Amino acid sequence: MPYIYKMSNAGGMSTVTRYTDMLAGNTAFVDPAFESIATTTVGAGGAATVTFSSIPSTYTHLQIRAILQPASTDYTGMRFNSDSGNNYAAHILRGSGSAASSSAFTTRSDALLNDNTTGTSGSIFNAVIVDILDYANTNKYKTVRTLGGVDANGSGYGISFASSLWQSTTAISTITLTNGNASNFVQYSSFALYGIKG
Fold it and tell me: Which pTM was predicted?
């Protein structure tokens, strides 16, 4: 096994520390532009929805980082300020390693968080990063971009990239995550909301 050696000039280069990882022994970097707002993990029995409420309007953008698994094969959506009307639009690109596809939706009842096709196969979870841009700006519609991936073991889509639009100028104060066919998020699905400073 190759090793990483970290040398110190204290004492005339007499201190040498050996690591098996290049990052070991270094101080973790925390980007000061990102501030944790809330984190939730689904407990036993699952959860039909996950909601972030009372979101402060003091940031420029929002980001959701999620590791999730719906209880059935379907997409995961999100609604802003409890709006379930046909006020959303979306585009999505998908790739499986052997094929690609795309879809467009001009009237939807939610924005796209993730496109899941693995369902309950084993313990497969999806990793998703969602950026909600200018969420507190009351002069423009809200734009969302999403990158999701899953090791589907040769079946289903492995990666998806989506963009969504919420046709409202209202500042976002509540985000509700839900599955397209009303199934539950399984236990240990985890969601973290961050505020991004300008």
Answer: 0.80
